[in-house]
Amino acid sequence: MADGVAAGGATAGGAARPRTGSAGASCDSGCAGEPGKKAGRPRADAVRNRERIIDAAREMAVEHGAEVSIDEIARRAGVGNATVYRHFHDRSALVRETVRSVMDRTAERAEEALGLSGAFDALCVFAHGAVEDHAGAMCGMLSANADEAEREHPDLRAARTRLEAGVAALMGRARESGELRPDVGAGDLMLVISQLARPLPGCTAALNDRYVHRHLQLFLEGLRAPARTPLPGSAATLEALRTS
After folding, report:
1. Per-residue pLDDT band at 1 (split at 50, 70, 90)
2. What whole-number distance in Å separates Cα of residue 221 and Cα of residue 179?
3. What is the CATH number of the domain that holds 238?
């Protein structure tokens, strides 16, 4: 989404968003602004719609980049614009929730992989799962406002911290077992996963998905110890990637 977390409540064409409740409040139950209805547990259909909207935002960002419009996301999700704004009071709220959900999903993969036997095999299982989450496509959604977004929304920082801890634990375990070459960092792995998950210009997402696991495995084989040749430069850290 072109405006990232700084975006306001207008659609891509500049029109004002539908008024669906009080400003600054999202409605999981789908009933914001309706008199006589008490807030409570979200209805099952409202939960499904929310999940469809988030999934659509992630998919569209992968296929078309961060500039994708609310109209396109709503069409992909099979809902109207008003439904999107009932769940997310503006564009930035949808961006944040999409990014957070992807980080949480990828962090869960890392935590599950830590329970597998074989340290390097577990790292590979995580990497192949993470590339399907298309975390790299989310980077452009927060853009340069990522630090500000994390300050204002601690859940984003918590999700990132959880993900980074899981990846570091997986790589540390593989390194201690002697299966992972010592001159690579967590940033090296996540950078490649992000790059592979984003289709090249002119390449469809479907075509990219056909080859992504093959190319990822080529990279992973290069991480195995013992290393045949030294790597140029220094290992990439997650902090360096975040602040560069």
Report:
1. very low
2. 11
3. 1.10.357
Per-residue DSSP letters for 131-150? HHHTHHHHHHHHGGGHHHHH
φ, ψ (nearest 5 deg) of residue 13: -85, 0
Instruction: Provide the domain limits for residue 135.
Output: 95-243
Task: State pTM to two decimals.
Answer: 0.76
As for how many domains the chain has, the answer is: 2
Kindly state whether residues 203 and 145 are assigned to the same domain: yes
* pLDDT over 50 (residue 87): yes
For the chain, the average pLDDT equals 80
Interhelix angle 119-133/205-221, rounded to 10 degrees, is 160
Q: What CATH number corresponds to the domain at position 54?
A: 1.10.10.60
Digit-coded pLDDT (tens) for 205-223: 777 788 899 999 999 999 9
CA distance 88 to 212: 32
